[in-house]
Design a protein that fits this description.
The complex is a heterotrimer of chains A (about 425), B (about 260) and C (about 260).
Chain A lengths: L1 H22 L13 H5 L2 E9 L2 E3 L3 E10 L14 E6 L5 E8 L2 E2 L11 E10 L3 E11 L3 E4 L3 E6 L10 E3 L5 E3 L5 H23 L5 H11 L10 H28 L23 E11 L4 E10 L5 E8 L2 E4 L15 E2 L3 E3 L3 E2 L4 E9 L2 H4 L12 E9 L5 E9 L1 E3 L2
Parallel strand pairs in A: 2-10, 13-23, 16-17
Antiparallel strand pairs in A: 1-3, 3-7, 4-8, 5-6, 5-7, 8-9, 8-10, 11-12, 13-14, 14-20, 15-16, 15-19, 15-21, 18-20, 21-22
Helix pairs in contact in A: 3-5
Chain B lengths: L1 H5 L4 H13 L3 H31 L3 H5 L9 H24 L4 H24 L4 H4 L5 H14 L2 H14 L1 H9 L5 E4 L2 E4 H8 L24 H28 L4 E2 L4
Antiparallel strand pairs in B: 1-2
Chain C lengths: L6 H5 L6 H8 L1 H28 L6 H6 L1 H24 L10 H39 L8 H28 L7 E2 H26 L12 H7 L5 H19 L1 H7 L1
Classes of the chains: A alpha+beta (about 425), B mainly alpha (about 260), C mainly alpha (about 260).
């Protein structure tokens, strides 16, 4: 067995290495591309996602920060994020250890609720635990709806400098410092071995005998159901009684031993915690959606709006965000792109009106166009049973102050 | 002898059964019988492993995978329910035909062994969880109690009342010996958590969010906070009832050792 | 065929040493168990190395390259194995039960047990490797389609392979062993049908997961269809009793001569 596992590990590492070489530089998605396009557009708008640093060693810290806006266009048939939600991280198993997570400053060890149309700033601090190359996605698990996935960022985790095993120490309230990686495993092994030994002994007693299945079958058939118990001997009775008594005694002894060794214990902790949402900052741009069409051949979404600038500064539209894809307006050239950030089209947005002057009401056409629509399977929009879209527009005043707000409405396909 | 004739068996069958009985004195026949024993135990136990794994993992698996699921209210109820339901039909058949009170121990022992192997391969090697977070529970002692209750009382009914009851009631105590350390309190970010909760938080499970856990939640009517003993008593009742019901299912299934002329 | 010398196999009457005799008698079980364990181990290593590296996104080129051919290969191999072997066994069936000697009949029971041993070993492999690999996978990974790597192994190979062995075994038993010929063993049929029905039940499982059950709770009611079908293994006991009854009779009859001498 050991040999088999050792062999497997060796082969495994060779193959994993091979695969990594083949895949280097590729952007893999992790489940989000399978979700309906309209659902990705109308649930949560993630932005400012920042993962740093991107190259670390086992034991190092990675911080993931970002913001999200819960969509007011949340599909009514889907259980809402304003009931139960949990801030999570999309990584393949505990390759990272979550040390801290918070939303709007509230620690997020438990689940919470996010009212719609508000801003949430989250932060997750993790410690790398297993070496490898991981696509790290912030995730929200929404009860009965599923997982809402932000874009991923590749993080390269190298082996630690030392060969020492990974340690995850915490101090309990009674004051003991423990390593969760191996905590209390000795007791687990010991008690399991005791019970396995008891079970094996009991089975051996009954199975190691001269007459077993066929002979007993023949004898019982001969004796008939009423006298079949004659097959059980006095020794069987005594041995069973002993096993019965010893088992009860071991259960009791184990229980008392543990109670004595760990006198202070608590039940598992659960229950929702509350988070105070942040209001969307008012930029003074009133937006009315006139019409939106999706051009299949051109891989572009074109939206027509009536926009009124109620701000006292001229406003310029710099970015459209939907389904985690950022379409940036190259003329405005605002909006930071973080290291390792994916799903950004740097020249994907064109606006028919460059600057909206204070007090001005204009018809604006925004066209978000890029091959990313295809790559992230947004072309499936026309196959959805609910053809409506939502997204966020980001606009800037003359000081470069950023504002954002959600827009949405029906969308019609344009086949030709 | 007389019974056989009363049963209305034909002369040929009566003679053949006599011969069967006589073969028990033949060393040559006994050698073949023992060879059969070895093979049938292997086959039966391997299929039992598959059966109990499917049964248990898909009805009580989540509580058994993660230490932060093993609560006071649901796990001690769900786990014995699931196991007793699976054990009963096998116990009935093996008891009725060969009078061996072994199936509860066999099922619980095999479940324990396969769970260890599976947790190691799938949760530790494949998905990197530390074994301290995903080790299985044990039910072997409960299986022994159930089998012994049958062996001592020689009655399926009494064994369901005593053994089924104990099987349901003792889930928490039998596992407490190694589970207690995981319920030690920890302060984390200003909140109280058990070690198990903390592990559930730290060892990231992408699609197993905190709210997914089906565990005890606080209520106004705690009746003095006696959650564990109350659950044990209710679990004992469930154990007795479900075991009896599935013994009956077993009696029906084991009566089906028949042949049919065609597939209906 | 019915005339071959079956004494050594049926009655363990060869001249080999104890150990050599054991391996010789059980060579079918050992050979085929070794083969299926090798197949299982190969799939396991493939899953371990290619699962999280190229298996998380069905729509990626890597997935189409490294996982879909596995799926197609599995379906082709299992389909042709089941249909081919079943057809062959049916075409070469025994037509005259009375031409089968008692020794041959008994040796076929031993063969039947060997066949069951191979299936049992595979059952153990599924239980220890496949079942919870799917649980572990789904609880750490977002489900994208019905073809996740663990599904490709457990749903489209491991469990169907058990059916692929059970169906020919069912046909073999009912065409080679007199007690099962010209009739159908009810418990055997129940076992085969139960395990077979697990495959159609995927339909309900996947439909439910896309439609009304979004969480990855393994103990969820949506999965209980598999549990119910797993209960078909309860029928192994009455099936064992049928075999025990028949084998006891055959062993008693074929060792009678001995009995007469020793008496």
């Amino acid at each position: 067995m050991n040999k088999l596992i050792a062999g497997k590990k060796w082969l495994g590492s060779v193959m994993a290495g091979l695969v990594l070489v083949i895949l280097a530089g590729d952007a893999l998605a992790h489940g989000e591309r399978a979700q309906l396009a309209s659902m990705r557009m109308r649930t949560v708008h993630w932005f400012d996602t920042k993962v740093e640093p991107l190259n670390i060693k086992v034991g190092d810290i990675v911080t993931v920060t970002g913001k999200l806006v819960t969509s007011e266009w949340w599909p009514k048939h889907m259980p809402s994020i304003d009931e139960t939600v949990f801030l999570n991280m999309g990584v393949p198993g505990p390759t990272f250890l979550r040390l801290h997570s918070e939303v709007n400053g509230v620690p997020m060890m438990r689940s919470t609720a996010f009212p719609l149309g508000k801003v949430y700033e989250y932060k997750t601090v993790m410690r790398a635990r297993v070496a490898g190359r991981y696509h790290v996605h912030p995730i929200l698990n929404v009860k009965d709806s599923g997982s809402l996935v932000d874009k991923g960022t590749w993080v390269e985790v190298a082996e630690a400098d030392t060969d020492a095993p990974f340690v995850n120490e915490v101090t309990t309230l009674p004051g003991e410092t423990i390593d969760l990686e191996t905590y209390a495993l000795k007791g687990v092994y010991t008690w399991h071995l005791i019970w396995i030994a008891m079970g094996v002994a009991y089975l051996l007693y009954w199975l190691l005998r001269k007459e077993l299945f066929i002979p007993r079958f023949i004898r019982i058939r001969e004796l008939g159901a009423d006298r079949a118990n004659e097959l059980l001997t006095k020794k069987d009775f005594v041995v069973s009684s002993v096993f019965f008594t010893v088992t009860l005694a071991v259960v009791l002894a184990g229980y008392l031993w543990a109670e004595n060794k760990y006198p202070i214990t608590i039940p598992l902790q659960t229950g929702l915690v509350e988070v105070e949402p942040i209001e969307i900052p008012k930029g003074g741009l009133a937006v009315e959606v006139d019409h939106a069409t999706y051009d299949l051949a051109g891989r572009s979404l074109s939206m027509k709006f009536q926009m009124t600038n109620n701000n006292d500064s001229p406003l310029r539209i710099g970015e459209f965000l939907t389904a985690n894809i950022r379409f940036l307006n190259p003329n405005v050239d605002e909006g930071e792109i973080y290291e390792g950030e994916e799903m950004v089209s740097t020249d994907g947005l064109t606006a028919s009106v460059d600057t909206i002057q204070p007090g001005q009401t204009v018809a604006v056409e925004l066209v978000a166009s890029d091959a990313l629509w295809e790559q992230y399977r947004m072309t499936g929009l026309i196959h959805d049973p609910d053809s409506r879209f939502a997204g966020m527009i980001f606009y800037y005043d003359e000081n470069g102050q950023r504002y954002f707000q959600e827009v949405g409405g029906a969308v019609l396909p344009n086949f030709f | 002898m007389s019974e056989i004739q009363e049963n209305g068996l034909g002369a040929v069958e009566t003679k053949a059964r006599l011969l069967d009985l006589k073969s028990l004195d033949s060393p040559k026949a006994m050698k073949l019988y023992r060879r059969f024993d070895g093979i049938i135990i292997l086959i039966l136990f391997m299929f039992l492993i598959l059966g109990v794994q499917i049964q248990f993992t898909l009805t009580a698996g989540d509580w058994d995978y993660w230490i932060d699921w093993r609560d006071r209210r649901w796990w001690p109820l769900v786990a014995p329910f699931s196991l007793l339901l699976f054990i009963a039909p096998f116990t009935y058949g093996i008891w009725a035909r060969v009078r061996l009170p072994i199936m509860a121990t066999a099922v619980t022992l095999l479940l324990c062994l396969v769970s260890w192997l599976s947790r190691y391969l799938n949760f530790h090697e494949f998905t990197h969880f530390p074994l301290s977070f995903v080790f299985p529970s044990t039910y072997i002692g409960l299986g022994i109690l159930l089998d012994c209750a049958l062996a001592i009382s020689r009655s399926l009914l009494v064994s369901s009342l005593v053994g089924g009851g104990l099987f349901g009631a003792l889930v928490y105590p039998i596992n407490w010996s190694f589970m207690a350390p995981y319920k030690v309190p920890v302060e984390f970010n200003g909140m109280l958590m058990s070690v198990a909760d903390l592990m559930g938080y730290q060892y990231i499970r992408t699609t197993t969010p905190e709210y997914l856990r089906i565990i005890e939640e606080s209520t106004l009517r705690t009746f003095g906070g006696s959650v564990t003993p109350l659950t044990a008593v209710f679990s004992a009742l469930c154990g007795m009832v479900i075991y009896m019901i599935f013994l009956w299912v077993g009696s029906w299934i084991n009566g089906l050792d028949k042949y049919t002329k065609r597939i209906v | 065929m019915a005339l071959e010398n079956t004494q050594p196999v049926a009655l363990d009457a060869g001249n080999d040493s104890k150990l050599a005799g054991h391996f010789k008698r059980n060579r079918f079980a050992y050979t085929f168990s070794a083969i299926i364990i090798a197949v299982g181990a190969a799939l396991r290593i493939y899953l371990d190395t290619m699962g999280f590296t190229v298996g998380t996104d069905y729509y990626s080129d890597e997935f189409q390259k490294y996982w879909m051919p596995v799926l197609y290969g599995e379906l082709i191999i299992l389909g042709s194995f089941t249909i081919g072997l079943s057809t062959y066994l049916w075409m070469t069936r025994e037509t005259d039960a009375s031409s089968i000697s008692k020794e041959l009949e008994l040796s076929r029971y031993w063969k039947l047990l060997s066949i069951f041993t191979v299936m049992a070993v595979w059952a153990g492999c599924i239980a220890s490797n496949a079942v919870e690999s799917d649980a572990a996978w789904h609880q750490v990974t977002i489900r994208d389609t019905d073809f996740t790597p663990t599904h490709i192994i457990i749903f489209y190979f491991a469990l169907p392979a058990l059916t692929a062995m059970l169906i020919p075994a069912f046909i073999w038993t009912h065409t080679r062993i007199p007690a099962f010929m010209n009739k159908i063993s009810l418990p055997f049929l129940a076992v085969v049908c139960g395990i077979l029905m697990i495959m159609p039940n995927y339909g309900f499982n996947e439909w439910g997961h896309t439609f009304f059950y979004a969480e990855e709770l393994f103990a969820a009611p949506i999965h209980w269809g598999f549990v119910f079908l797993g209960w078909s293994l309860f029928f192994l006991i009455p099936l064992a009793m049928q075999i025990i009854g028949q084998m006891a009779r055959l062993i008693a009859e074929t060792t009678t001569e001995d009995l007469g001498q020793s008496a």
